[in-house]
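Hello, quick one for you while I still have it in my head. Could you read through the record and tell me how the tokens relate to the sequence? No rush at all, and the record is pasted right below.
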Amino acid sequence: MTRPRSLCCGLLLATATFLGCTAKDEPRVPLGRIADSMLARQQAHALLGPAAKAALDSGNVLFRKKAYAEALGQYRAAAALAPQHSAPLFGIYMVARATNNRAMADSALDGIRRRSGPLPAGPHALPDTALRRMHEALRRKPASS
């Protein structure tokens, strides 16, 4: 008994389509990693109490309005309420950058590093000496108009 030609072609086409679709699947992320990152995020937010979160949010609103002095006050209040959290220091750093206050920016970055620990080295990481040389070269470079 022979099968009709259209049935054989249909089976071959269906098999090829199935194999083609399944061969390109993205690698799956184990649920443990997602759950761990969600737990870490929840723990970080728990460190930032409601009063500190309100001050941080107020600082963000004021920063967007370019009310930098008021925003800085809110970020400092949030930092005092949550001394273990880095988010208020990021706000202080943003204000320092917006107002060209290098000393305050450096101080905020130092606080962020102390709270966060050393950053992991990536494939693009440069030795500290190379980073220092690049940073100093950028500081010496005159601002272009």
Q: What stands out?
A: Residues 5-23 form the longest helix (19 residues). The CA atoms of residues 112 and 118 lie 10 Å apart. Helices lie at 5-23, 31-47, 50-64, 68-81, 87-98, 102-116, 128-140.
